[in-house]
Write a structure and sequence with these properties.
binds adenosine-5'-diphosphate; six-stranded mixed sheet; binds magnesium ion; Rossmann fold; alpha/beta
């Protein structure tokens, strides 16, 4: 078996005296499509943020490719591990100019057209203002920029929940394609059908604890059930 890309050992996250995540132990392997499920407020987003150190664990150890995450310079980590969130906002201005700014900032060897090609967006968008893009189009551009950075690992926090059915399917297909190319995907979704469609293995969180591990089909049985029933199944 291959070595895990991420390993969490007895990880806790405490904020303002409140335990947000409790004794998290998990391993994520290269090229997995790993899903984090759980009700609202169960700690999914907080957990995802530990992977690229947007949140810092208060106890326990996190390893990235066998190296203690605390020993890795943050920019090096974030070159390889990219988070895409729901409702990502772009700089204001004409799309073409804004994309040129991001391309320069992110040091990408690409043109604005290359970026639009990633998610199949029309070049006519280049002449629009970013404020005049629909939420879905803006989100697709943000996703395209993340893909253009060519990270090894994608952290996805509910990225399709504000998208139309068509755009959501487009994004899921793209993520599956990236997995086929060798990327690792760690994904939060509240849409169970979507989770089954894309995800393989994962965890179910409740009150900051992992209460079940398994295939996505097994995990979705936990929604709306109390802990004992969910564990018994
Ligand atoms: N800064 C904070 N201080 C105290 N509690 C917080 C803070 N940020 C988040 N929380 C709490 O942590 C819990 C988990 O939140 P979150 O990770 O956003 O859950 P999810 O993404 O599953 O909806 C929630 O109960 C939330 O209220
Ligand atoms: Mg969340």
């Amino acid at each position: 078996m291959s070595k895990p890309v991420f390993k969490f050992e007895n990880v806790y996250l405490e904020k303002n005296g409140k335990t947000i995540l409790e004794d998290i132990n998990l391993e994520i392997f290269p090229n997995e499509f790993f899903v984090i499920l759980g009700e609202n407020g169960s700690g999914k987003s907080s957990l995802l943020k530990l992977f690229n150190r947007l949140e810092l664990n208060t106890k326990g150890r996190i390893y990235f490719n066998g190296e203690d995450i605390e020993d890795i310079p943050i920019h090096k980590l974030r070159d390889k591990v990219i988070m895409i969130m729901q409702g990502a906002t772009l700089f204001e201005g004409k799309v073409k100019k804004v994309l040129e700014t991001y391309i320069k900032k992110l040091n990408l060897n690409k043109t604005p057209e290359d970026i639009l090609d990633i998610m199949g967006l029309n070049y006519s968008n280049l002449e629009k203002n970013t404020e005049n893009l629909s939420g879905g189009e803006g989100q697709l551009i943000a996703i395209s920029l993340a893909i253009a950075k060519n990270p090894d690992i994608f952290l996805l926090d509910e990225i399709t929940s504000a998208l139309s059915i068509t755009m959501g399917a487009l994004v899921r297909n793209k993520m599956k394609e990236l997995q086929k190319q060798g990327k690792t995907i760690i994904c939060i979704t509240h849409n169970m059908e979507n989770a089954v469609e894309v995800g393989e293995r994962g965890i179910f969180l409740k009150d900051g604890k992992i209460i079940k591990r398994g295939s996505v089909k097994e995990l979705i049985e936990c929604f709306g059930k109390d802990e004992e029933k969910c564990i018994k199944r």
